[in-house]
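Quick one: co-fold with NAP.
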Amino acid sequence: MSALVLGATGNIGPHVVHELIALGQTPRVVVRDADKAHTLFGDAVEVIAGDMSDPAVLDTATDGVDSVFLLSPHSFGMANVQLGVIRELRRSGIRIVKLSGTSSAITPDGPHVCRQHWEIERVLQESGQPFVILRPNSFMQVLVGQLMLGQLRATGSIINAIGQAGISLIDARDVGAVAAQVLTRHDWDGQTLELTGPRAVTYPQLSKLVGVYEPAPVVDAAPAQVRASLLQRGVPGWEAEHFLEMYELFAAGESAFVTDTLEQVTGRPPRTIEAFLAETLEQAGVAS
Ligand SMILES: NC(=O)c1ccc[n+]([C@@H]2O[C@H](COP(=O)([O-])OP(=O)(O)OC[C@H]3O[C@@H](n4cnc5c(N)ncnc54)[C@H](OP(=O)(O)O)[C@@H]3O)[C@@H](O)[C@H]2O)c1
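Sure, here it is.
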């Protein structure tokens, strides 16, 4: 079975590609920066340089593949890009494995990016095309690795806008492992898989876990304060609104649910937040 991976050079894509390689595959990737792909993957992938919005690029890239991993960035126009890909693949018989968002937010009136995921999912499900939808919760690498630790470095504290609610954060590498299984087997065709980490963690708990390595005091804030600070930092209005609604949803405990889907698909338990933090802080030279 051969797979094309879109969005191969971001947070999730490299893990999908590396897991496919580990399964003995030679995945194909469509990338805007071929050098970046060669640096990440060496000769283990087939690189097609181009834009995933370009039908001619897609036509070449999908020639002979059985499945496409559909990921494009969190953006105002995400649905336009992804619906374009789905449209181009209509009647091709090629299976689409779509990366979506946290399950509880995928509603017609959900936060901006999530309601785009809702629309893309609906079109895909009704298209008659073979598909699998992956709905991961927030990635440890983004919410903790980039946002929370980034904030700690910049301000000396962690902003908690979700009170005592927990989020069952997932390691991006586990999302890649699930995607690779789904791209190389047919066991989950037509299904929507909700993917979570092993347990929900709150910000106060995260603060304690990081505190083993370095001080990480928590400062409470209302979601509206987060929106205001995002706007102040030049984040566009639609995106600040998206994050406000995401934090409100998290604060209501909507992303605390835990599933065992990841273990069922990969045959091993999800990575823990403790393991993620130890590796991340060791790499940063913080942990001894
Ligand atoms: N962050 C979270 O916690 C979270 C949780 C659940 C779901 N999600 C969903 O995950 C998705 C984002 O995944 P991610 O974090 O891996 O994204 P990302 O890091 O932003 O990576 C996006 C990838 O797409 C590529 N790309 C962008 N536009 C392209 C184009 N026109 N043609 C070809 N390649 C293009 C980028 O390549 P370049 O290197 O050229 O830029 C990059 O490889 C979103 O749909 C988001 O809603 C995120």
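If it helps, The mean pLDDT is 97.
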